[in-house]
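Bench log, entry 3. Co-assembly request; chain sequences pasted below exactly as received.
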Amino acid sequence: MPENQIFIFDTTLRDGEQVPGCKLNTKEKIELALKLEELGVDIIEAGFPISSPGDFHSVEEISKIIKNATVCGLTRAVEKDIQVAADALKYAKRPRIHTGIGSSDIHIKHKFNTTREEIVKRAAKATKFARNLVPDVEFFAEDAGRADNEFLARLIETVISAGATVVNIPDTTGYCLPHQYAEKIAYLVNNVPNIDKAVISCHCHNDLGLATANSIAGIIAGARQIECTVNGLGERAGNTSMEECVMIIKQHKELGFFTNINTQLLNPVSRLVSDTMRMPVQPNKAIVGANAFSHSSGIHQDGFLKESITYEIINPEEVGAGESKIVLTARSGRSALAFRLQKIGYEFNRNDVDVIYEKFLKVADTKKEVVESDLHELAKAYIASVAEV
Ligand code: KIV
Ligand code: ZN
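Structure output for the full assembly:
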C-alpha cells in the first residue's frame, strides 16, 4: 500500500444507520453498498450482525455482492458476537471483523465496572479469536479520545500482538480538540513498539463540530484510515463527513495524501443517502448542501462572474454538483441581474439594466428570492415601457 494513501472506511450503513429514523432494510442497504463501492470507498462497514436478524441478513447479502471493497461487521469484544459476524461475512471476498472495548477510565468504571488489566485481557482474547476466523481484524478502543495515553498505548500494543491489522482510535464523544487528537495519534506512533504492523484509523464524532478537523489532524499525525459517513450522519451530532475529508485531501495537495474516491459521485451519492434515509441535508453543508455553490450577495456575485476562483475553491462539477448558481435576492447587484436576464434570453445594455434594477429591488424586497418568472415579468414590462415612448 502506498504510504500516502488514506483509506476511506465508510460507516454510513452502521454508525450512520444508528440515527433515529434512518433504519434501512436489506434492499436499501444493498443499493447503498453498491453505490459506495462505485464511489470508491475502501471499506464498507455493513452493520452489526449480532444486533438483529435483519442486520445479519444485510451484512450477508452485502458480502455476496461487493466485489472490490472490504466488507466489515461490528462486534463487541465478546466471542458470540465475533462468531456471528464471521458467519455473516462468510461470502465476503475481503471480510473484516471490527471488534473492540471501552478504553477510557470513564467507560472502564461506569460501563464495565472492571479494571484496566481486565480490559487488556478481554481485548487480546477477542482479537485473537477474531483473527482465527478472518485475516483482517480491526480493533476499536472505544472512547480513546478521553483515555489515558499511556494505557491506550499498552492496549494497542497488546491487540497488535494478538493479530489486529487496523487499530481504531475513536473520539467516541467528540470531545478532543484537533491538536489533542493529533497528539494522541503521534503518541501511539512514537510509543507503541509494533505500531508499524497495523494501520491507525480515526473515528471521530461531531459533538463539538470538530469531527472533520480531528480526522484531518489524525492523518497528519500518522493515521492512514478515516472512518466517516456520507453527509456526516451518525450517532448524536454525527460522524466525520466523508465528502469534507475527501475534498480537504484533494484540495490541499501540500498534505501529500490521496484517496480512491471518485469525487464526481459525491453529490449523487449524498442525494441517494439523503433520500433513502429520509434525512435532509442542511443547505449550508460543505460540498453537498444546496447552497454550497450558490452566490447571492452583490459583491460576491460580481467577483464570481468576473472570475469564479474569487469566491469558489472547488469547481462544482468536480463534486458532481452541476453548475454554480447566481441567486437573486435584495442583496444582489446589477451584474448578477444582467447575467440572469441574459441566461433566459434578454440582451440589455447597461442603461436598460440600471432601470430594470430599480424595479427589481422593489420586487426583491417583497420576497426571499427573485425567480425566473419574476425576471420575465420585469423584462417584459421594461420592453413594453420602452416601446410606448
Ligand atoms: O464511536 C465509536 O466509538 C464507535 C465504535 C463502535 C467504533 O462507533
Ligand atoms: Zn462511532
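The chain is about 45% helix and 15% strand. The first strand starts at residue 7 and ends at 10.
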